[in-house]
Amino acid sequence: MSRFLILVLVLANIASAIGVVYARHRHRVLFDEVTRLERARDELNVEFGRLQLEQATVAEATRIDQVARVRLGMKFPEAADIVVVRP
C-alpha cells in the first residue's frame, strides 16, 4: 500500500513539474508576442503622428490656395464678374 502511495506521489510530482515547464514556456511565448505587438503599436503611433502632420500641412488654407492657383489655374473673380442673385 505504501509503495502504491509513493508511486502516486511521484507521478503527481512529475505531472506537476511538467505543468510548470509548460506554463513557463507558454509565458515566454506570450511575452515575446506581447513585445512584438507593442513594437508594432509604437511604429503605428509614429506613422499616425507623421500622417497627422502631413494632413495638417496639406489642409492648411494657404497650401490649398497655392494648389488651386498653380495646379488648377484658379483665381478670384474680378468685381465685374460677380453676380448677386436675389430671390
UniProtKB/TrEMBL annotation:
Swiss-Prot/TrEMBL GO biological process terms: cell division
Record's keyword terms, sorted: Cell cycle, Cell division, Cell inner membrane, Cell membrane, Membrane, Transmembrane, Transmembrane helix
A Pfam family per the record: FtsL
Source taxon at top rank: Bacteria
Protein's cellular compartments: Cell inner membrane; Cell membrane
InterPro entries in UniProt: Cell_div_FtsL
Membrane topology, as annotated: Single-pass type II membrane protein
Family stated for the protein in its record: Belongs to the FtsL family.
NCBIfam families linked to this entry: ftsL_broad (TIGR02209)
Biological role: Essential cell division protein. May link together the upstream cell division proteins, which are predominantly cytoplasmic, with the downstream cell division proteins, which are predominantly periplasmic.
Assembly: Part of a complex composed of FtsB, FtsL and FtsQ.
Protein's recorded name: Cell division protein FtsL
Taxonomic lineage: Bacteria, Pseudomonadati, Pseudomonadota, Gammaproteobacteria, Lysobacterales
Primary gene name: ftsL
